[in-house]
Amino acid sequence: VLAARSFFAAGGGIAEVRTFSENARRTILAADPGLMTGLLEHPSGGQPRGKGVLVGPGIRLNEQKAGLILSMLAQAPEGTPVILDASSAELARDARYPTLLKQTTLLTPHLGEWRKLGGVAADCVRGFEAARGHARALGVNVLVKGPVSLLLRPESSLVLPAPQAGLATAGSG
Questions:
Q1: 168 pLDDT exceeds 60?
Q2: Strand pairing report for 36-39 and 157-160
Q3: By the number of CB atoms within 10 A of the CB, which of 37, 91, 125, 153 ranks highest?
């Protein structure tokens, strides 16, 4: 719900929220009856119908959920923007992750999630270079949220030196 509200606040048009359980779908509808919702429960995952895909936040990833999400992403057209938030960022390391989507994928980990992905804090030049190298190895774009936030892209990187309070807000991914 937070992610959908952030999407609309940023000027987004139509959003569909898919979840893994009917109970979660009902909870989402109770919070915002105007949201389109659906279940992600079939092995095919269902082709994404939008212009972009946000996976997470709030998903407790397991093998079954990872398989469904990866199956859905495998059906997305090349170049579809994908945001992997919270624990779903782990999907980018899965060998089944569609290579054709990597260039348009953005991971949005905070420092703890970044470390779980094998990244290091960029608290010095050497750490910054290591973080850039790790993002390149993953083959995706990464926004590491922290006291100094980093946007790591294959061709360039950006350091956001001042605290970005908005990035510490639930749903900001």
A1: no
A2: unpaired
A3: 91
Sign of CA dihedral 159, 115, 69, 16: negative
| Local structure of 151: helix, strand or coil | strand
d(CA 106, CA 114): 13
The two beta strands, 105-107 and 82-84, are: parallel
3-class DSSP assignment, residue 56: coil
Is the predicted pLDDT of residue 60 greater than 80, yes or no? yes
At 8 the three-state DSSP class reads helix
Q: Give the CA distances from residue 104 to residues 40, 68, 154, in Å, rounded to whole numbers and listed in that order.
A: 22, 20, 11
Q: What is the DSSP letter of 155?
A: S
62's CB contacts (< 8 A; 6+ apart) are: none
| Sole residue written with tokens 């937070």 | 2
Give the number of other Cβ atoms within 10 Å of residue 108's Cβ.
Answer: 23
Q: What is the pLDDT of residues 136-161, one digit of tens each?
A: 999 999 999 887 789 999 888 988 87
Paired tokens of 55:
């996976």
Query: 133, 127 in Cβ contact below 8 A?
Result: no
pLDDT of residue 90: 92
Q: Compute CA distances 159 → 51, 83, 108, 171, whole Å.
A: 28, 20, 14, 21
Q: How far apart are CA 74 and CA 62, in angstroms?
A: 18
Residue with tokens 């979660």: 24
